[in-house]
Amino acid sequence: MRARIEDVAVAAGVSMKTVSRVMNGEANVREGTRLRVTAAMEKLNYRPDPSARRLAGQRSYEIVLAYNNPSRNYLMDVVTGVLAASRSCHYNLVLSPISSPRDIDEIFVHAHPDGAVLTPPLTDDPVVIAALERHQLPYSCLSPLDRIARIGAYIDDVAAARSLVLELAALGHRRIGHICGAKGHGAREWRLAGYKQALKEVGLPYDRSLVVSGEFLFESGVDGARTLLGLKQPPTAIFAANDDTAAGVLRTAAELGLRVPHDLSVCGFDDTPVASQILPALTTVQQPITEMARIATLQLIDRIRDPKAGAMEQVDYRLIQRESVGPAP
Amino acid sequence: MRARIEDVAVAAGVSMKTVSRVMNGEANVREGTRLRVTAAMEKLNYRPDPSARRLAGQRSYEIVLAYNNPSRNYLMDVVTGVLAASRSCHYNLVLSPISSPRDIDEIFVHAHPDGAVLTPPLTDDPVVIAALERHQLPYSCLSPLDRIARIGAYIDDVAAARSLVLELAALGHRRIGHICGAKGHGAREWRLAGYKQALKEVGLPYDRSLVVSGEFLFESGVDGARTLLGLKQPPTAIFAANDDTAAGVLRTAAELGLRVPHDLSVCGFDDTPVASQILPALTTVQQPITEMARIATLQLIDRIRDPKAGAMEQVDYRLIQRESVGPAP
DNA sequence: CTGAAAGCGCTTACAG
DNA sequence: CTGAAAGCGCTTACAG
């Protein structure tokens, strides 16, 4: 039979309350007592009953992962990270797909979470944020626009995009196109900013006709490349806001009979599986998504335990050089 | 403040126990009483406290989704379906990645689920199944090898594969290659069986040299196509066990300078996003994965409530004809 | 630094 | 067909 807190208390020769104190890392337990209790927990292989904790403590020990419509690859990596961090702290993960911003209130019907992890673009949705504030729910963000007021994790998208474009310039490209990400995503703004910054550094003009809108989709790349490559003076390189978009660019290039990288250089962002599978393989930027999610979740748990704790942490990205980038023709 | 069962009881003029009966769909409640209670629940917007139910009932109302390493696209579709079904029945979803079959016991450390949904190939892993039986945990399967003894949902993979190959034969192909799926997956056996069956029906010989092993991966397609297209008498069509594999075939074909479908016809299976994004778009088979997951979860919940309930349901697939298949050269 | 009592919101026997 | 009591395994005040 499963050991209960009472069994541990008897085995350690203390009261239930003391076991509870040790279990929850509370202060005011003598070191010797603590050791006797942990030994008893160990020996009995004690695991607190989650339901009893929740009921008595009036807390759920649940963390909601709220997401709307990011790529599946991204989301699965996030899930892995959140799961790892929440389990290590005896929290449970509840998945909450959010189809409309108003759905955010649904969360509080299905569950009574102690906190939430948000993925972009929910991180920057005023309706979502307002709802969380109203419910006074602690939350943590992956790559939010606002890095000052939030806790969570992010990479320096601006610097990453800048390096990519600087590399293109170093290979002699003078007309470098950019297909933007979806509006409302921080990643759109940062990657565009990195693009502009790199141009300025190498003394290239910022030509608005070389920048087209997009949605982070394959189709964005197809359409964007048609526009860019149909210009009187088409670019010799295209920096796509993500790998899916870059894959679309490759498709259009193939349709137009352009060889990559001989006639056109292309780079993406994210290093999703398609980046290494497509022909030619994409030069891109790798984000440690699982690690970011893990860190953001740990920050959240810190904040749940102490409203003043938790921080916004920057993690490192990595440039992945493959075959889709070459010297300017 | 949140309504409790006691509040509902007072409002309806009955005891807590009667409210509990109505809530759990138990028998022996007079119709008039039932109506008064449901009206009171409605009016107070009553939601039972999950933790209290779990603690008192000694059940978790949790359903584990156990998965090891299927494709992310597949898994996200499964998650969507399981989530929909479990929520509609007031069950919670707990994700359980299983890296090694022995990890299955971990499930019972982190949670005390009322049931489990299994994805392939866990569905056919003797170690996993034995552990579930030992813990006497009800479980439901997606596309298990054994359709007789299990409950869950499946499509007729054999028939789907057969149609694909029959279509190739109808277009004049006489040498049709097959790159198999991973060992231990029912899908491997069924798709191979459908391939063989179609050949037999149209009077083509089964040539072992035209069938190569694979792992459902992009790389399987690259390697498999190199082998097949390097034969003295190479096939004019290749049926890949899934879309990722087919994408690999397309890559190798491009490297060898073969045009698809002019020089080589290719078809996949699953209709993942890559199938419509790759050039040329893949002829393939669409499985309603989300719907299958929803059905399998409902069957599981039936079985949780009654050990004799629950069934194995067949759902329909759909042939998707795109551009990767054409007449034999 | 430690403990005895009450209570979280339900369900489970049991009684009628 | 319905209800009063006990109990699920913890935590929260409160007391010492």
Automatic annotation (TrEMBL), chains A, B:
<keyword id="KW-0238">DNA-binding</keyword>
<dbReference type="Pfam" id="PF00356">
    <property type="entry name" value="LacI"/>
</dbReference>
<keyword id="KW-0804">Transcription</keyword>
<dbReference type="InterPro" id="IPR046335">
    <property type="entry name" value="LacI/GalR-like_sensor"/>
</dbReference>
<feature type="domain" description="HTH lacI-type">
    <location>
        <begin position="3"/>
        <end position="57"/>
    </location>
</feature>
<dbReference type="InterPro" id="IPR028082">
    <property type="entry name" value="Peripla_BP_I"/>
</dbReference>
<dbReference type="InterPro" id="IPR010982">
    <property type="entry name" value="Lambda_DNA-bd_dom_sf"/>
</dbReference>
<dbReference type="GO" id="GO:0000976">
    <property type="term" value="F:transcription cis-regulatory region binding"/>
</dbReference>
<dbReference type="Pfam" id="PF13377">
    <property type="entry name" value="Peripla_BP_3"/>
</dbReference>
<keyword id="KW-0805">Transcription regulation</keyword>
<dbReference type="InterPro" id="IPR000843">
    <property type="entry name" value="HTH_LacI"/>
</dbReference>
<dbReference type="GO" id="GO:0003700">
    <property type="term" value="F:DNA-binding transcription factor activity"/>
</dbReference>
<protein>
    <submittedName>
        <fullName>Transcriptional regulator</fullName>
    </submittedName>
</protein>
